[in-house]
Every structure is written in structure tokens, then in C-alpha cells.
């Protein structure tokens, strides 16, 4: 008697835990960077060149530690995107949402990693001793870690929230909240054109990270019979 091979559902790493790790590493970079700089906050890219140059010259260790933890946060974010996409496929989602989540998450992780590496470059003596390099490198770090990271992060949220809403994989309030945060993340593109739109970046970033944690714990491993 020949028996059919058994198939098992591979849940992958716990999504909620991955979301917590991403958030903890990112916030640790901000907190430690500020603490090592003696409480001086990271300078805005829209500020005057003089104080910006002085900050990077005086607080190279703070910049290096913050950049390293930001780079570290990109790794579990990429794992989150891959795991969430695979989970959606296992739940029977064949619409583009799973692929959009994967593409958005990988882009968000890649830009976050680039921003962290650029911060590491900004902390090196060869750069801090050359003031003309500091300003353009800081702008590039902002572009990659700001809109470059946040806008694709919105695609990750939308790619999970849309099938979560349409198929009932997530509570309706949570799915709608994810779509709202995703919309803010896409609007953050305006920060490349309007300085005043930069406030959208931290709103979308931290709300998005919180949403990924909650959605990670809520997204099921199996579809119930009503949704199958």
C-alpha cells in the first residue's frame, strides 16, 4: 500500500517576535546614539551646515553605534518580509498582495541597511576631517533611511493588510489601520519635495513598526473553514 506523502505547514520564524526585534534594534540605535552624544539629538538634514558638521565631528562614536544598530535592524525586517509572504501563500493567497509585501519589505530593509552603512561612513575620520563630504553624505543617509525606507515599508503593510481584510485573515480594525498607515507612508514621498512633509516619516515609521508587531501575532498559520 502506497501512502501519499504528508505535507506540513512551515510557519517560519514568529512574525510578532521578528517585529519586536526590528523595533527594538531601531529604537536602541536612536536611544544609544542620543545618549552617547550627551543628549544632543541627531541633526535634521534641513538644518544649517555648520552645526551639522560639528555634530558629526564631535560625536563620531554615537553616529557609528546608531548606524550599526540601524543596519542590524534591516536583517530581521528582511526575514519578516520573506516569512510574511510565504505565510500568505500558505494561507492560499494567490493575489499580488503577498508579492507586494515581499518586494516592499525587501526594499525597505535594503534602504535601511544602506542608511546604516552610510552613517558608519559618516563616523570615519577620513570623512569627519573633510567637512565638504559630511553634508552630502548626511543627505544621502536621510534619503535612504527616510523616504527610501518608509515608502516601501508602506507596501509591506499594504501587502499584508489587503488580503488580511478581504479574506478575513486579520481583524477588520487591524487591517484598516494597516491600510491607513500604509497610505501615510506613501504620502511621505512628499518629503523629497516639501520640507514640511518630513513629519510624515516618523509617524509612518513607528506606526508601521507597531502594526507589524500586532499583525505578526494576529496573522494565522491556517485558514479556518469559513475562509477556506
Verbal overview:
The chain is mainly α. The chain has one domain (15-218). The chain is built from nine helices and no strands. It has helices spanning 15-36, 49-58, 60-90, 97-122, 125-128, 131-145, 147-166, 172-187, 200-218. The radius of gyration is 20 Å and the shape is elongated. Mean pLDDT is 90; it is low at 1-8.
List keywords for this structure.
228 residues; mainly alpha
Question: In brief, what are we looking at here?
Answer:
With 228 residues, the chain is an all-alpha fold.
Euclidean distance between termini CA atoms = 31 Å
Order of helices and strands: HHHHHHHHH
Overall number of structural domains: 1
- Give the strand content: under 5%
Low-confidence stretches: 1-8
- What gross morphology would you assign? elongated
Structural class: mainly alpha
Quick one: biggest sheet?
Answer: none
How confident overall, as mean pLDDT? 90
Query: What count of helical segments does DSSP give?
Result: 9
Radius of gyration, in angstroms, nearest whole number:
20 Å
Q: Count the strands?
A: 0
What proportion of the residues is helical, as a percent range? over 70%
SSE layout:
Elements: H1 15-36, H2 49-58, H3 60-90, H4 97-122, H5 125-128, H6 131-145, H7 147-166, H8 172-187, H9 200-218
